[in-house]
Design goal:
Layout lengths: L1 H28 L28 H4 L12 E2 L5 E2 L7 E3 L8 E6 L4 E4 L5 E4 L5 E10 L10 E2 L2 E2 L2 E9 L5 H4 L6 E10 L5 H7 L11 E5 L14 E6 L10 E6 L3 E3 L1 H9 L25 E2 L19 H44 L5 H18 L1
Parallel strand pairs: 1-8, 2-16, 11-14, 11-15
Antiparallel strand pairs: 3-6, 4-5, 4-12, 5-7, 6-7, 7-10, 8-9, 10-11, 13-14, 13-16
The structure holds 2-acetamido-2-deoxy-beta-D-glucopyranose (NAG) (2 copies).
Catalytic activity: hydrogencarbonate + H(+) = CO2 + H2O
Keywords: Lyase, Membrane, Metal-binding, Signal, Transmembrane, Transmembrane helix, Zinc
Protein name: Carbonic anhydrase
Length: 384
């Protein structure tokens, strides 16, 4: 009885492991960028290798980068649509005790501060969002490097705090759905004083100068990195600004800016190194076309004009873009399952052979059998 049941149970376990492995690889192949998906750190087979120098080629490997709802955009305040229903952004759980340490990492494209899931946006969006990470974009000593612009003005730097919709289990799942992500963006400028919140990040940068270096830093009030006034902002539908450029971000770009001292700004733009050890600078993407999108404003940008509201739901291309992505993700799933099943069949044949062979010769103990199976699974890992 138990002799017959054991191989069957082990086989089931093996199948499960293989399927899980295949699914995980399919997820990685869907192309999570190191910047925007902090939990997918692996550099897959040539997957997350991209740079700001080859921006024009992003779309050939990551189709969404060539879509019609891309970010960043140039915000023209005269063209924004005042929307009184855009309530002030409210944050919860942003003030972290210093005993809670956070990972700060140079991923070769930017500096990323990983955030605990206790941080949330509780108002200002139709749904609830949880924080995952924040990162920065900057220029160099010679020029500014914000991603968005306002009235053709590019600011020295920009912070992005990335959140995902709580109706999804994790950011990997959320980032492929049209309502998956909410990013809070704010512009950094030079002011007269040192900014004590940015100090909590900047004073550690020298320890993570090289790509993939990381350090743990004490918690602090993360909200201090954003403007004091969270009532005034722009809102539009856009994308991740790095590959895979998924068009799943509901953007908030604050109208108030954040000020750092000149010294702090210099530390930000000169300390880190990226790929091939060159200075990590000008890590911003060029402006993307609106393709008919509207930018809403939570406030009246001009007092004298009364604007007509645009017809609602005019942008059908957004739906197409989202659908296209969903179906390619499902195709990946199907492939993964197919490979898993194929391998399981191979493993079954192999196991039957081993089992038969053993029965014909000396009977071996179960510990040795599990060792054989473990070897088979390991071989698969290396082969795929
Ligand atoms: C963003 O897209 C959603 C879904 O298509 C739509 O309801 C919403 O009005 C859009 N928001 C903006 C700011 O255009
Ligand atoms: C904030 O809004 C005002 C009024 O429209 C505009 O002049 C200014 O450029 C905006 N600044 C930012 C950073 O959005």
């Amino acid at each position: 009885m138990s002799r017959a049941a054991l191989p069957a149970a082990l086989l089931l376990l093996l199948q499960l492991l293989v399927l899980l492995g295949a699914l995980r690889r399919a997820g990685a192949a869907a192309g999570h960028s190191a910047e925007d998906a902090p939990h997918s750190h692996e550099r897959g087979p040539g997957q997350s290798h991209w740079s700001y120098e080859d921006r024009q080629e992003w779309a050939s490997r990551y189709p969404d980068c060539g879509g019609t709802m891309q970010s960043p955009i140039g915000i023209d305040t005269a063209e924004t649509v005042f929307s009184p229903q855009l309530r002030p952004i409210q944050l919860a759980g942003y003030s972290l005790p210093s005993k809670e340490t956070l990972k700060l990492k140079n991923n070769g494209h930017t500096v990323v501060l990983e955030l605990p899931e206790s941080l949330a946006i509780t108002s200002g969006y139709a749904q609830q969002y949880r924080a995952v990470q924040l990162h920065l974009h900057w220029g160099s000593l010679a020029g500014p490097g914000s991603e968005h612009t306002v009235n053709n003005h590019r600011f020295p730097a920009e912070i992005h705090v990335v959140h995902y919709n709580t109706k999804y289990d994790n950011i990997e799942e959320a980032m492929v759905h049209p309502d998956g992500l909410a990013v809070l963006g704010a512009f950094l400028q030079v002011g007269p004083r040192e900014n004590p919140y940015y100090r909590q990040i900047l004073e550690h940068l020298y320890k993570i100068q090289g790509e993939d270096e990381e350090v743990f830093v004490p918690g602090f009030n993360i909200a201090g990195l954003l403007p004091a006034n969270l009532n005034l902002y722009f809102r539009y539908n856009g994308s991740l600004t790095t590959p895979p450029c998924y068009q799943t971000v509901k953007w908030t770009v604050f109208n108030q800016t954040v000020q750092l001292s000149q010294d702090q700004m210099s530390v930000l733009v000169t300390t880190l190194r990226g790929d091939d050890n060159s200075p990590l600078q000008n890590n911003f993407r060029e402006l993307q076309k609106l393709h008919g999108r509207h930018v809403l404003a939570s406030f009246q940008t001009t007092l004298t004009w009364v604007k007509e509201l645009p017809p609602p739901g005019g942008d059908s291309s957004s739906e197409a873009g989202a659908e296209k992505h969903t179906s390619s993700f499902q195709a990946g799933d199907v492939l993964a399952v197919l490979f898993g099943v194929l391998f399981a069949i191979t493993a079954l044949a192999f196991l039957l052979y081993v089992h038969k062979h053993r029965n014909q010769n000396t009977r071996l103990d179960s510990p040795t059998k599990s060792k054989v199976i473990y070897t088979a699974a390991t071989t698969d890992e290396n082969a795929v």
